[in-house]
Amino acid sequence: MKVELILENPMAGGCGCSVSMSDRMALMKQVREQAQVWEKVKKGHGGHEFTRSVMANQGPEHIRAAIEAGSTLPLVFLDSELVHSGSYPTVEEFADLLRGGEQNT
After folding, report:
1. What stretch of H or E contains 40?
2. Spatial contact of 37 and 88, defined as CB atoms under 8 Å apart
3. Environment class of residue 67 by beta-carbon count within 10 Å: exposed (0-12), middle (13-18) or buried (19+)?
4. What pairs with residue 5 in β-bridges?
5. C-beta separation of 76 from 3 below 8 A
6. What are phi and psi of 76, to 5 degrees?
7. Could you give the CA distance from residue 88 to residue 34 in angstroms, rounded to a whole number?
8. Which helix (H) or strand (E) holds 95?
9. What angle do CA 22, 26, 29 make, to 5 degrees?
10. Residue from 65, 74, 68, 76 nearest 101 by CA
């Protein structure tokens, strides 16, 4: 099964010059924590193809269609089917999504 996680670019707001140091540190902490969740999911669910990327203007049709339909980032797709949007899933939520996806194949 192909697992895709599409994220918002955390640096898309510009150079960050007007952002406080505490805000920058909080963003860095969030990015680190999300990366740790992703690594745990990958390690705990071998046998799947995992892709984690930042939203681009030109992406695959299923991603563009989800955005046009009003889905908000981050997005999680299993075999190009949107299964979660609007928040970064926890390890447990990812496990539930993957179990559900495996039952549907």
Report:
1. helix 21-44
2. yes
3. middle
4. 52, 76
5. yes
6. -125, 125
7. 7
8. helix 91-103
9. 140
10. 76
Question: Within 10 Å of residue 80's Cβ, how many Cβ atoms?
Answer: 13
User: For 6-48, what is each residue's pLDDT tens digit?
Assistant: 998 766 655 555 668 888 888 889 989 999 999 999 999 988 9
Q: How far apart are CA 88 and CA 40, in angstroms?
A: 14
pLDDT of residue 46: 86
| φ, ψ for residue 7, nearest 5 deg | -110, 160
pTM of the predicted protein model: 0.85
Residue 42 to residue 94: CA distance in whole angstroms? 10
Q: Give the amino acid at 105.
A: T
d(CA 78, CA 4): 7
